[in-house]
Amino acid sequence: MIGDGMGVSQVYAGMTANKGSLYLEKSQFVGLSKTYSADRYITDSAAGGTAIATGTKTNNGAIGVDPDGNPVKSILEYAAENGLSTGVVASCAITHATPASFVAHQPKRGMQEEIAVDFLNSDITLFIGGGKRYFNDRSDSVDLLPKLAEKGFQLAFTMDEVKELTEGRLAALVADEHQASYPERGEFLPESVMAAINLLKGNEKGFFLMVEGSQIDWAGHANDTEATVNEMLDFDRAIKVAFDYADQDPNTLVVITADHETGGMALTGGDLSTGEVEGTFATTGHSSVMVPVFAYGAGSEAFAGIYENTDILAKLLSLYGF
Ligand code: MG
Ligand code: ZN
Description:
alpha/beta; single chain; six-stranded parallel β-sheet; Alkaline Phosphatase, subunit A; binds magnesium ion; binds zinc ion; 14 strands
């Protein structure tokens, strides 16, 4: 689970607004991840997502390729090759940098139509997010939706449709571009995590699911403390859904981290009894600080310590036994 732009200040802003606690505190082991990219001290979400997904530091803007442009295999692709079910869920366009890093291989994050084709041609079991226009309103006039159906994907365009599907492949595109911010988008994220788990858990070999709380980052870019809190609390409710499933199936590991921090956020005041929190920001861009890694469940001890963002892949491969 990736909170885009989620540094320790974002976590504690949510914790303060929630009067002192978050579901993610149930995590048993915590580490810190170094997020710099191959070509920059401060990463973007493409290089950050690619590092987590593939264990390769790449240049800012690159999706699932190394600095020379060669495709590198993602944890999702390793899982699919090994017969596990796989999925991605994001509270933004599914072709956006973070989810794309787990599925696509393209030199530039802006190539969202090409990234949509990579989703079509991937072995992924399900995806739930926005970005429908990159599938059916394209500059090449090709409609990928019937092609997704030919590949065995059931199509869904609303959460009511998503919730009805508990087996098979699923391509859920619930917004033309991005979903609204929280609370306007409602319970999209926790409900999608529940729907995804319900579908993926049918595979007795197991599954890999990447969930992104996408808009914590956008709140940081906007230097907006209230939006940061809203997105953080929404992401935390999605974390609770994953933890609840891990409690039912003790072979489950939940890892929560970020690709980078956004905004250089600091908390300069607050009140744990009222939930007031005062944030201030050093930049409208990303910052370089290490980000937290929280782990819960089977194998969670592997995520204690201080390490490179690229070490997360090796830990996951070792735990899966791939
Ligand atoms: Mg993102
Ligand atoms: Zn950003």
